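Here's what a typical entry looks like (ABC transporter ATP-binding protein):
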Amino acid sequence: MTCLLRTNQLTKTFQGKEVVSNVNMNIQKGEIYGFLGPNGAGKTTIMKMITNLVKPTAGDIELFGEKLTDTSYHLLGRMGTIIEYPVFYDKLSARENLELHCEYMGYHNKQAIDEALELVKLTNTGSKAVKDFSLGMKQRLGIARAITTKPELLMLDEPINGLDPVGIKEIRDLFKMLSKEYGITILISSHILGEIEQMADTIGVINHGKLIEEVSMEQIREKNTEYIEFTTNDCKKAAFLLEKHLGVSNLRVMDDHIIRVYDPSVPQSSITKTLVMNDVVIESIHKKNSSLEDYFLSLLNGGGIVA
Ligand SMILES: Nc1ncnc2c1ncn2[C@@H]1O[C@H](COP(=O)(O)OP(=O)(O)OP(=O)(O)O)[C@@H](O)[C@H]1O
């Protein structure tokens, strides 16, 4: 696989505070890379450095195999971006905004504007001024603008903000289509883990400015395990009984009342029977699957994957 975007020890300090620390990211050509992290983790700052809007304090960025410098306009022209909320000429229509953008980018292909508007379902907005668009329509127009010039890399900072569930599904399908059919590489940040889970090939997890994990979804799915979770009044006694009577060693006490058993050979009925016969109350018991959310939370809490 070819690496389309790579950062080497990328670091940014604002007023003496390091907000991005030695980040080494690797985005392969053709993949959808999901960038996950809580508010303030540093995602937007990294994206701004990749588009030359913010200058790194240290480290560097390689785009399309070339080092990014202050004058790398030819590299930036091969990217489509939405960073923070897209800004438009408010009094102009969707089409007029895209025409201006194409002119600015030196991209002369009127048909591409029709195609982009069609892809984001904004063909029937006519002469309506963008100031009268809903937030979701503006987000869709931002995506149209980012894809009009047929970029090789699309970089989208929280692009589904403001969209309703139907809109989110449409945009998710659009990204997948752009990736599969047009071979566009996509870097997308989102707080909505389920969205990333359904779209991304690779995820990069960032917390406090550090990239704490870069892993393929395939690897995460392989690590995904079934477990039995139960709520009880006495975790300590329950854990002791399960170990003594059923030989369970792979369990995790989640809090004062919740235990997870990661042992596929132990049936749920044996757990219930053992605990009830020894006067431990079970308030609820379920079979569950560890999801990306569990994985993400365990990383952010400083642990490894639960398994
Ligand atoms: N221009 C700036 N001057 C000073 N501090 C800044 C500046 N831009 C960002 N920061 C700080 O850098 C940190 C990272 O912010 P950033 O916007 O990159 O995070 P984020 O992961 O994109 O979060 P969010 O999802 O909330 O946008 C935050 O603590 C933020 O306050």
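Residues 14-15, 19, 37, 39-45 surround adenosine-5'-triphosphate (CB under 6 Å).

More examples are in the samples folder.
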